[in-house]
Amino acid sequence: MKLEKTPLEGLFIMHRPVRRDERGFFSRLFGADELAAAGRVSKAVHVNSSTSAEVGTLRGIHFQFPPHSEAKIVSCVAGAIWDVGIDLRPGSPTRFQWFGSMLTPSNGVSLIVPEGFGHAFITLEPNSTVVYVVSAPYALSHESGIRFDDPSIGIKWPIEPKVLSEKDRAWGLIERRMEEIDSGFANL
Fold this sequence. Notes:
Elements: E1 2-5, E2 12-15, E3 19-21, E4 24-26, H1 32-37, E5 46-52, E6 58-64, E7 72-78, E8 81-87, E9 98-103, E10 109-113, E11 117-123, E12 128-134, E13 143-145, H2 166-170, H3 174-184
């Protein structure tokens, strides 16, 4: 595995070796030993997956506040997604900036999203399946999010979102939730 820095400190693109033969291809989605050798120790607590049937399904922007903040390794195992990490850390020089990358099963790319970041993705192909390796259990009491179209962040989605959950539509804008976000991530 090879880690590539992004413009946002702590957010990495992980290039996984993809082994191909007459049967298709093979790629390891998570290797604690390889991540540690690359300087990114990751504690895997849960491995989750989601499948989105329609192109233009948007999930996010999601995060959890400490002490249940999650670091995530996100991989696409079917279809294609455009994956985004958003820096929400108070005091970070890249706060409220985002970075996106296309993830597919065959391109060997995963995104390593650190604690203190929001995460979202949009599907580019039907029946896209995403696997998330996360470092903390889901805690409803610490769950939060921000709107995918928040003008303070200005994410440029590659396609128009068509399918969103009611919960994702209802997340507030950063300008109205600054105090909550600042206090929630103060101890990161």
